[in-house]
């Protein structure tokens, strides 16, 4: 039985291994699809929808990271509909984000900032919106600061702590616009089983998690707002 299937990506016929997702198929052809909640080290969450693509015959856009390729699939990764949808998603994320980038230690190395720039969204436009929402900053851990005003709730940190470290110090609480990344009973990070390994910081796409030692080295203020 053949182990490959034929699909088309942006009008080009390609042969891909069975079981590959659209994201993996595109990557194998050198086509970049933006991602945020996806990380190659972690299981697929499919919650940010930044990776949406158009699949012929389907009215809804599909999340490339979570959709397996099927024989004969015709995929568009960069159509106007796709780009507009991604732009709206990034705008929504920014509307709830403390986008005071110049004061952030991830300035110039932030996945959200990079996408905003690629999709021509001015992060400064959202600085005034972010303070409308109350955020907490947990500074009590000996090594890590968790700043919810920078969190996009991609859950990469939660999956990192559970899947890579086997610790489960982080979790998701509440639903809808109250959803947040927190710990057991919403305790401070110093009061849970966190081993201060720093892996969640390494896998966070934004400045929501930071090692205190990094802030000291780069001379950024400990409190961001
Ligand atoms: S520092 Fe390590 S143990 Fe603590 S929350 Fe992050 S990944 Fe989990
Ligand atoms: S802290 Fe970072 S990795 Fe965790 S959900 Fe927020 S943005 Fe994602
Ligand atoms: S990267 Fe695919 S849904 Fe987030």
Question: What is the string of helix and strand elements?
Answer: EEHEEEHHEEHEEHEH
| Overall pLDDT level | 91
* Distance between the amino and carboxyl termini: 59 Å
Strand order of the largest sheet: 2-1-5-3-4
Which stretches of 5+ consecutive residues score pLDDT under 50? none
Examine the secondary-structure arrangement and name the CATH architecture of the largest domain. 2-Layer Sandwich
Taken together, the total number of domains comes to 2
Largest sheet: 5 strands, mixed
- Strand residue content: 15-25%
Enumerate how many helices there are, as a single number: 6
The radius of gyration over CA amounts to 19 Å
Bound molecules: iron/sulfur cluster, FE2/S2 (inorganic) cluster
The counted number of beta strands is: 10
What portion of residues is helical? 10-25%
Which fold name is given in CATH as the topology of the largest domain?
Answer: Alpha-Beta Plaits
Layout of strands and helices, then pairs:
Layout: E1 4-9, E2 12-17, H1 22-28, E3 52-55, E4 62-63, E5 74-76, H2 80-95, H3 111-118, E6 137-138, E7 144-147, H4 156-164, E8 170-173, E9 180-183, H5 199-203, E10 209-211, H6 212-218
Parallel strand pairs: 1-5
Antiparallel strand pairs: 1-2, 3-4, 3-5, 6-7, 7-10, 8-9
The site of FE2/S2 (inorganic) cluster has 12 residues, from loops.
Task: Provide a descriptive summary of the structure in words.
The protein is of the alpha+beta class and 225 residues long. The protein has 2 domains: 4-78, Ubiquitin-like (UB roll) (Roll); 96-218, Alpha-Beta Plaits (2-Layer Sandwich), CATH 3.30.70.20. The chain has 6 helices and 10 strands, in the order E-E-H-E-E-E-H-H-E-E-H-E-E-H-E-H. The protein has helices at 22-28, 80-95, 111-118, 156-164, 199-203, 212-218, and strands at 4-9, 12-17, 52-55, 62-63, 74-76, 137-138, 144-147, 170-173, 180-183, 209-211. The strands form 3 sheets. A 5-stranded mixed beta sheet has the order 2-1-5-3-4, sandwiched between helices. The longest helix has 16 residues, at 80-95. The relative contact order is 0.14. The mean pLDDT is 91. Bound molecules: iron/sulfur cluster (SF4) (2 copies) and FE2/S2 (inorganic) cluster (FES). The site of one iron/sulfur cluster has 13 residues, from helix 4.
